[in-house]
Specification:
38% of the residues lie in helices and 21% in strands. The protein is α/β, with parallel strands linked by helices. The structure holds nicotinamide-adenine-dinucleotide.
Length: 485
Amino acid sequence: MHKIYIDGSWVNSSSGKTFESFNPATKKSIGTFQQGNAADARHAIDAAYDAQKKWAGMPAPSRARILFNIRDLLTKDKERLGRLVTTEMGKILPEGLGDVQEAIDIFEYMAGEGRRLFGHTVPSELPDKFAMTTRLPIGVVSVITPWNFPIAVPAWKMAAALICGNGIVWKPSSDTPLCAVELVKIFEKAGMPKGVVNLLTGPGSSVGDELVRNRAVSGISFTGHRDTGEDILRKAGVKRVGLELGGKNGIIVMDDADLGLVVDGIIWGAYGTSGQRCTAASRVIAHEKIAGKLEKLLLARIAKIKIGDGLQKGTDMGPLINEGAVRKCEKYIDIGKKEGAKLVCGGKKGSASGHFFLPTLFTGAAPDMRIAQEEIFGPVLSMIAVKNMDKAIEAINSVDYGLSSSIYTKDMKNAFRAICEIEAGLTYVNSSTIGSEAHLPFGGVKGTGNGVREAGITGIEEFSSIKTVYFDYSGRLQRAQIDTD
Ligand code: NAD
């Protein structure tokens, strides 16, 4: 039975309750986990509060050495962890390995920040006075994460939080607690001082709620559903809150696009990870001149997608995360049909041995249909035909989300219009909506987020606080705005 990790010890929850995690491809249990509660969360927050002071007192390059150790251990263990991601979350093994690689990349990148963590030095308006900024940690940070990137998303947050000198209490999704336990074991092995990182498995309604409301917590970094994010924002009070929420990402295909490239990108974007990436493409906005041809090409490729257990070689698409996700897809198939879109393939469950759902394509969708507006988070793609670039931009921007986007065109003007006019945090030109790199900022606009950008140099902004320092060595009172020339 797996434990929770508080103040450097693996312990049972005071709730005395447990829950199980299941392999979505086989529905078999893969372990029993502690159902943490609010009391455990308070205990973990106290531990992080005490440990954080020492951690912040350590020079950042020394903190970085532990982050480099984590990178090295993750690299050594990549195959085992990748298989674990596939077993617990369902994505195919190459993607499971990719999940771990993202964590390796971000730990390497953020460890490098240990020798930067730049502030600014600027001239003062007064003589014999220095003016500069420096970075301080926020304090204790609650990290609350989803199941779809069970190693990468927590790593993106924790690598940045750690290099900035924060203490962490992490609550992973109850669909992927084993990945969390194994990641924390690696932190422990890398030499992380006790109390700096604490892990609580358990429900959002008790553990998560305490992590959000507790006044000893100064920052919250959350990735998950928009509804959960909005709820957190209402309860957090005066805390730094970073929200990375849902998406309804679109791919624009213009009539001059290379359709071979487009089909590769759509198949990867819409059906990779069974459509369960936050950046997955769920809408194709195709120029009407090529929409029919594109539909035929897509159908031919969709027919070849091999669905099954992601650990088996040759599988292209794994299961959905759980039964609820399958039911949600079924619900949207009904909605799409009633709205008048044409279901041209898929639309139903796959093998009953796991939570499988067939790759699905709707054509004849209108931008305002619910299937084209709401996040389904499964392999359900809607195609919308448009007359021209103006209509394509209008359609892609018609949703209340703004994470990723893409355009396929050979026309430079349309490419730059997409870059400037699409309301999203990411725009890809002649590539799909997915595939972020650790050294570039990641995040969305509108309903997808509240302005935070994770990863890259902006990653440290979420987890550090700027202090402005005035150092006056004039030996007299100098008044800003008054004693200037
Ligand atoms: P979710 O919101 O159901 O859960 C996310 C986490 O929040 C889990 O750990 C859950 O236990 C916890 N939680 C639930 N209720 C809570 C509460 N009241 N207080 C505190 N914590 C609570 O989301 P999910 O199903 O795990 O993840 C899928 C969603 O995540 C999708 O909407 C997807 O688009 C989004 N996502 C976004 C990004 C991004 O970067 N924008 C990345 C990955 C996933």
